[in-house]
Amino acid sequence: MEISRSDTEQVAARLKSASKSLHNMAQRVARALQVREFMPERKKNLLAYHMREYIEADIPIAKAEALARTQYDYIEELNDLMKQLEAAELVIHQYQAEQASRGNRRIII
After folding, report:
1. In the 8-state DSSP scheme, what is residue 1?
2. Contact assessment for residue 78 and residue 43, using Cβ atoms and an 8 Å cutoff
């Protein structure tokens, strides 16, 4: 199979486009990685926030946790956190797919 100059130029143009796309995604990826990294702490803090009123009322910790987890506000806020994590994971996967695509284009050249 013979590769023509126009084929090489097309691949080079796509590689340049992919590099630009990766560069443009950098800030979003950094934020997404930060969301992913700190999500366990954010979930713990959310639970602790909702447990506080029960603990202050001298309710045992295990019961306070169970009561906090059943609060509508806690569930809503936890769902919001999970949506943030899902959006972050999507950005990370898009970035990884773009990197893989860029890598494949390099191999072709």
Report:
1. -
2. yes
pLDDT in tens, 41-78: 999 999 999 999 999 999 999 999 999 999 999 999 99
Q: Which residue has the tokens 């969301």?
A: 35
- Global pTM value: 0.71
- Parent domain of 86: 5-107
Q: pLDDT band for position 18 (50/70/90)? A: low
Supply angle C-alpha 58, 62, 66, rounded to 5. 100
- Tally of domains within the chain: 1
Compute CA distances 99 → 92, 104, 106, whole Å.
Answer: 11, 9, 11
Question: What's the gap between Cα 74 and its chain centre?
Answer: 21
